[in-house]
Amino acid sequence: MNIKFRLTRKSIYVILSVLICTAAVCFIDTVIQPGYWIKSGIKVLLFLLAIGGYFIINKDELSALRALFIPKKWDLFKGFGIGIAIFAFLLGAYFLLRGYIDFSVITGKLTADTGVSRDNFLYVSLYISVVNSLLEELFFRGLSFIILRKSTSRLFAYIFSAFMFAFYHSGMTSGYFNVGIFLFTLFGLFVGGLIFNFLNDKSETIYASWLTHMFANLGINTIGMILFGML
Q1: Which terminal Cβ of the chain has fewer Cβ within 10 Å, N or C?
Q2: Does residue 15 form part of some domain?
Q3: C-alpha span between 96 and 111 (Å, rounded)
Q4: Does residue 40 lie within any of the structural domains?
Q5: Rounded to 5 degrees, what angle do the CA atoms 130, 132, 135 make?
């Protein structure tokens, strides 16, 4: 793995834009705490501005942007296979741990903090699973890994993308569990970010990680439906 670090105009843009957008989302999650759809709209705007700004400034990279959306059979196979396995693992873990962890606090906090309730959770879960997962993959795997590694080192892009992915979720997960479980969750998200990067490393498309991410979200949202008494 290439470990030589390079700092260029392109890498500076990606690093700063990802840091600013991620910190802004965390601040909104933990301090402002608007309704779910308002928060999602702001996030979509920030992420798309960062991605679009990069390719407007660097028109020579437009072919790399198009490549992110070119599906390859092996990537689709990996994405579906790993995604289904993660979906099954999450449900299994929930049923094994529900006697030891009070998951009911999640639904109460969701409703109190973001307005997500039993009445709108189906729409929220569909958005999270399909649209939000695609947006996050474009931002954290497309821009923060595949594009970034071209102007810096592969190792740095691996660590930076995975770290920012975990940091991005810190605002969402804070307050749901005790400190130990919270830190373990962030570590798991960091490792998950590394795995997502690895899935896309050879192909330079986002399909493998997007499908895996989508099924992971589907597993989490299925648990949410159980907690809300929808299943």
Answers
A1: N
A2: yes
A3: 25
A4: yes
A5: 110
